[in-house]
Amino acid sequence: PSIQSAINHYFFEGLKNPKDLSKRLILIYIKSNLYSKRVQKRFDITQKITQKQNIPDISLLLDGEGRFKDLWEVVVLGSLVSYNLSQMHMVNPSTNKMVDLLKKELSSSV
User: Fold this and answer.
1) For residues 82 and 80, what is the distance between their CA atoms, to the nearest angstrom?
2) pTM of the complete model
3) Are 33 and 64 within 8 A, CB to CB?
4) What is the rounded CA–CA span in Å between residue 20 and residue 98?
5) Which of 15, 58, 60, 70 is 20 to 30 A from residue 50's alpha carbon, by CA?
6) Which of 70, 94, 74, 97 is nearest to 83 (CA)?
């Protein structure tokens, strides 16, 4: 089996619980015309299956002008989403105890 089929398997298994997941989650499908036809088909089928489970979703189609541009689009979007979520939940995004611990452990383990 391919890595994509394994990912789909675990993804669908993970959607079984908690039972109220559809009230707590919005899936974001990030699509690109640069994906292979098989990957594009996998996204479409996966989205149909999750919609049948009443899980809300958003589809974003990257502009597909190039891999680097698509990648940059995702990085910027992810940063904006992370920042806005931190503001909604009144969390200071500049401090992160887990990142501080990681840095400390990395500096002492060499």
Assistant:
1) 5
2) 0.73
3) yes
4) 28
5) 70
6) 94
How many angstroms separate the CA atoms of 27 and 53, rounded? 12
The pLDDT tens digits for 43-68 are 999 999 999 989 999 999 998 789 99
Give the H/E segment covering residue 29: strand 27-31
Burial 20-37 (b: 16+ CB within 10 A, else e): eeeeeeebeebbbeebee
| Separation between Cα atoms, residue 5 and residue 10, nearest integer Å | 9
Element (H, E) at 31: strand 27-31
Cβ atoms 32, 62 nearer than 8 A: yes
